[in-house]
């Protein structure tokens, strides 16, 4: 690379703001709008076509979603991981402090969208599923509630977890040097709820247990779900790197000390 080219790249880098929240707001808007549409769909077709799994309308309005979302989610997760790895920073020694600070801010934005996705999946739709079971006697494991909860919302937040982890691994020098235990917990822990779904459904099928949240079959959901609290460790690591980049003078300036 010539000196003039290097200068042009440096000027372009300096022109980019370190904190740009447009991507964050767009991501949150898309995620929340999508789930609001999904919730409206549930309200309309849950009772109308979701009570009898042997009815033709159940296949049309619910099983068609199941067979569509699973391959789409699998391909999306692989494509996202592949893109982040393909466009990774290959030589971390070339990353300037400004670029590193921008990457840290971008990673925080990833984490915020991931947190919103976990709320929808592990809180909103999960609590909704408990209400559904207390209202409707199911005749299949693939209820309308499960098709949205287990096979849509859980994989979506897992895909975002892949994005969070790979972004940090491929853009931030600190995380590129090894594997952050906190980041592994916060990204892999909630994902493990998906295998636990298989255990849960197997248990309900063979033991005909009541849908109580305190039932032993549900303990795995709580155990893996609470691993999302590993985000506090990730945030501490990110703040540690912000402190290193700013230096004592910069931190004192920000805190007013």
Automatic annotation (TrEMBL):
<protein>
    <recommendedName>
        <fullName>Methane monooxygenase/ammonia monooxygenase subunit C</fullName>
    </recommendedName>
</protein>
<feature type="transmembrane region" description="Helical">
    <location>
        <begin position="23"/>
        <end position="41"/>
    </location>
</feature>
<dbReference type="InterPro" id="IPR023349">
    <property type="entry name" value="NH3_CH4_mOase_C_sf"/>
</dbReference>
<feature type="transmembrane region" description="Helical">
    <location>
        <begin position="108"/>
        <end position="126"/>
    </location>
</feature>
<dbReference type="InterPro" id="IPR006980">
    <property type="entry name" value="NH3_CH4_mOase_C"/>
</dbReference>
<feature type="transmembrane region" description="Helical">
    <location>
        <begin position="219"/>
        <end position="239"/>
    </location>
</feature>
<feature type="transmembrane region" description="Helical">
    <location>
        <begin position="146"/>
        <end position="168"/>
    </location>
</feature>
<keyword id="KW-0812">Transmembrane</keyword>
<feature type="transmembrane region" description="Helical">
    <location>
        <begin position="61"/>
        <end position="85"/>
    </location>
</feature>
<keyword id="KW-1133">Transmembrane helix</keyword>
<keyword id="KW-0472">Membrane</keyword>
<feature type="transmembrane region" description="Helical">
    <location>
        <begin position="180"/>
        <end position="199"/>
    </location>
</feature>
<dbReference type="Pfam" id="PF04896">
    <property type="entry name" value="AmoC"/>
</dbReference>
């Amino acid at each position: 690379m010539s000196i003039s080219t290097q200068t042009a790249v440096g000027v372009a880098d300096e022109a980019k703001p370190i904190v740009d929240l447009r991507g964050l707001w767009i991501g949150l808007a898309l995620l929340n709008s999508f789930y609001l549409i999904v919730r409206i769909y549930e309200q309309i077709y849950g009772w109308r076509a979701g009570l009898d799994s042997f009815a033709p309308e159940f296949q049309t309005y619910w099983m068609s979603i199941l067979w569509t979302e699973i391959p789409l989610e699998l391909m999306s997760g692989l494509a996202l991981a592949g893109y982040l790895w393909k466009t990774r920073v290959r030589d971390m020694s070339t990353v300037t402090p400004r670029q590193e600070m921008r990457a840290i801010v971008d990673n925080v934005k990833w984490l915020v969208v991931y947190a919103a996705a976990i709320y929808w999946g592990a809180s909103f739709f999960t609590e909704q599923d408990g209400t559904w079971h207390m209202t409707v006697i199911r005749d299949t494991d693939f209820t309308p509630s499960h098709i949205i909860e287990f096979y849509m919302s859980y994989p979506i937040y897992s895909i975002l977890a892949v994005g969070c982890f790979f972004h940090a691994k491929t853009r931030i020098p600190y995380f590129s040097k090894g594997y952050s235990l906190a980041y592994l917990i916060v990204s892999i822990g909630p994902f493990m709820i998906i295998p636990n779904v298989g255990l849960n459904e197997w248990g309900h099928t063979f033991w005909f247990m009541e849908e109580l949240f305190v039932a032993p079959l549900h303990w795995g959901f709580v155990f893996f779900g609470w691993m999302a609290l590993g985000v506090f460790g990730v945030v501490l690591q990110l703040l540690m790197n912000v402190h290193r980049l700013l230096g004592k003078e910069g931190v004192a300036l920000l805190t007013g000390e």
